[in-house]
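Quick question, first post here. What does this chain look like in 3D?
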Amino acid sequence: MSVSLVWFKRDLRVSDNQALQEAVNSQLPVICLFNLESERIHRKDVDSIHIEWELDCLRELRDSLESIGGKLLFNFGSIVEELTKINQQYQIKKIFSNEETGLTWSWEVDKSVAKWCIENQVEFTEFPTNGIVRRLDSRDNWKKERDSRVSKELIETPEHIISPQELESDQIPSIEHLGLTPRQLKQRPEPGEKAALSVLFSFLDQRGRTYRKHMSSPITGQDACSRLSPYLSSGCISIRQIFYHTRRKQKRVKQNPRSAENRGWTSSLSSFQSRLAWHCHFIQRLEFESTMDQIALNPELDEQLQREYDEDRFLAWSEGNTGWPFFDACMRYLTATGWINFRMRAMLQSVASYTLWLPWQETGNHLARLFLDYEPGIHWSQVHMQSGVTGINSVRAYSIRKQSEDQDPQGDFIREWVKELSQVPTEFIHEPWLMSLDQQKQYGCMIGKDYPEPIIDEKSARKEGVSKSYSAKGNAKVKQRSKLVYDLHGSRRRR
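> Answer (accepted):
Ran it through. Tokens below.
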């Protein structure tokens, strides 16, 4: 029996899925396959929360496929070995998949499948994903192509899938079965495609009204941000679906922007669309350079900076025990929930790179493991930007005290996530080390015992980090490489 095969990767949905639709249109019985490469679970940027989330999303995908006649096979191991096994039982004529922009290891997997297809005379077709354009020479015409792609009509869910009669879906294993230890997250979102659409509509119906105003604070951002990122990273929803429904919302608002029900939406939707555009912009960088987890976009600049790994500083940073209350609250919140808003993500990386002068590779991998919504293209682009190793972005060294006072003026977020400071009054909540010994006893927090002293002087260390960064950017070789980085990766929106 000849079959078409759909190779699911980070596109765990039945709607707006071109690979699935084209396989159905091929007029051959369809086999759906998800392969979890065994090497992936041992990578430095991967945590059990990522695998468990993916497996949970797969269970819903399996149910959705079965409701329209499809079957989902699951394999843990080599995709090439699994294709060989399937091909021995069925004759694979065509393989359909959606493009995935990933790190070098995922590129190697893609190439191995392409090679296998050539050797076995199998037609292999990949379809563009989101606004990412493969094989570009420069960014000059990228925006036009991206806008065209995300503006296309959505692809309908297939009404029916014809599968080989004897084929049955595989059971989706637990992470324990894969040899991993689960890590429970607080406030973990519901997995899957249905939940993704529900979250999108809750944002566009209600939560998004104050997006522009409230997205910067970790307190208000919990509700005001879209919270779509884990669904986007696993492909439970497409960027095109989000653009589509956002544009529909904008049209409704424009009809009567001053009405009570539409007040606040115009600016928030504009900001949200801008973020969606940046989503594709950053992932496009990884499409050009798949080694961003290892090599800086501007390696000459990175070499000039000469950051050094310090175990004590790294542990204090990664565990949220720096002695800087707002920073520690953010890191502990992220560790507990798997999510934090964009501005605080930038602060966490900035403090690591400028204030603590830690190498971005180690800190970037740690944050990747913490983010449930880890998207390599966005994550490593941001790590490079916030660490100042691109040469084309401004030096962004966050003042913890300023962020603390701006985003958590009363210290409520600090008290919630740094329990040691729960009784400390607002007067001292941002800098508890200023309390006298009597005050420390009174408020149940002895600095250096119950809660650490600041590991270094934050203000002077940050200023020193900024000074070093500007000095390094002035190097002639660095400037030369920066021009090349801009030509390949720089935004063209002002052109």
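The longest strand covers residues 91-98.
The domain at 2-127 is CATH 3.40.50.620 (Rossmann fold).
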